[in-house]
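ok so for the tutorial part 2 we go from a plain amino acid sequence to predicted structure tokens. step 1 is just haveing the sequence, like this:
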Amino acid sequence: MKYNYLISLIMLMSGLFCFATIEEGDSIEESTIEFEGFHAIQSHRVVHFTWDVNAEQRGDHFIIEKSIDQKVWSEVTIVESLKSHRESHSYKISHINMPEAPSEYFRIVRVDKDGEKTFLDMIDIRQPILTGLLLLSSKGKANKEVNLSFDSMIASKGTLTVMDRKGVVVYERKLSLASGPNNILLWTKPFNDGLYLVKVEDEFGNKLEKELVVSRRNKQKRKF
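step 2 — the prediction. this is what the tokens look like for a chain of 224 residues:
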């Protein structure tokens, strides 16, 4: 009889212990987050993302997604969270981004331990369509030919224009701009010595400009 009493007491105590454990565990902990703004800085082909979380309960990870129309989203990267914490934490991650449109959108989604997703914030980045114009003398053809090098995000029609210091157009040529790197030869031998403005413009009005110095008496013929 005494033995049965002890067994019952042990079982009762075990039940109480299990109940207390469940009460204090994650299963009833509320999923919450105190989120501060989502930021992004683009540097060349890399986007640097940052965001702050003041506190979080039952967190698991964050997903950064990208879209060019705010309708179709693709996963960029996943960042593991600190799970549950009451101290402010700053998250930072960099991602190589190949531009796909003049405007690109990035959003951050929080996923908790139950797999529930919560949209937190969205930002947009304006991409330069024409970038990186360089004027380089062609090898062995100094004072005769200059190579124009630049990038275009999209394929389009364009125009190459050269103007003198008075704004008079001395040369103009139609271009077919490719998506990606572009290289164009400019024949400068007919130009008189002096300062010129070289301009590349696409059919949408995006343009690049660079100064060009032509001098037959000095080998230094470019001004960057």
